[in-house]
Amino acid sequence: MTARTDAGQAQRAAATMATEQFAAVSTIFDAAEMVISVADMDTHELLFMNAQAERNWGADWLRRRCYEVLQSGRSGPCEFCTNHRLVEHGRPAKPVVWEFQNTVNQHWYLCIDCWRPRSWSPAGSTWTGPRSTWQRRSAKSPGNWAPRRAASSRSRHPLAAPAA
Questions:
Q1: DSSP characters for the chain?
Q2: For residue 64, is it within any domain?
Q3: pLDDT in tens, 109-133
């Protein structure tokens, strides 16, 4: 066996492990019963949406920008985007916690936005972007939590292992 063959096998094994880990984490995110999305900090491209997010905004999000999917009538970044508040001196800042009435479904959400540099490369790509967690609040009373629904265990990333 050559060094090149060994390196190729090691790369495939690492990619398989990363894909399996991502699938496991996706299952946990789906079970959280809240909206979780990940978008690239620079391009605003959605990289991940959990099952709750797909129920709210649909499954047609891959390679689309967050403002195109999560908001209504947007052709550019939202004026209320918190990305500029998520990094201080090249390091993650404190999470930005805020409430917002979504422009697509008119529901109120408690939003928790944060940035963590993350490298995950089963296909050789590096992802860096903000993570948003939205918890739905009652439309009638923004201060009250709305009832939760069960989440599916389907994975939302094209490189993740298929659901069994």
A1: --HHHHHHHHHHHHHHHHHHHHHHHHHHHHHT-SEEEEE-TTT-BEEEE-HHHHHHH-STTTTSBHHHHHSSS-SS--TT--GGGSEETTEE-PPEEEEEE-TTT--EEEEEEEEEE----TTS---EEEEEEEEEE-SS-TTSBPPP---------TTSPPP-
A2: yes
A3: 889 898 877 654 333 333 344 455 6
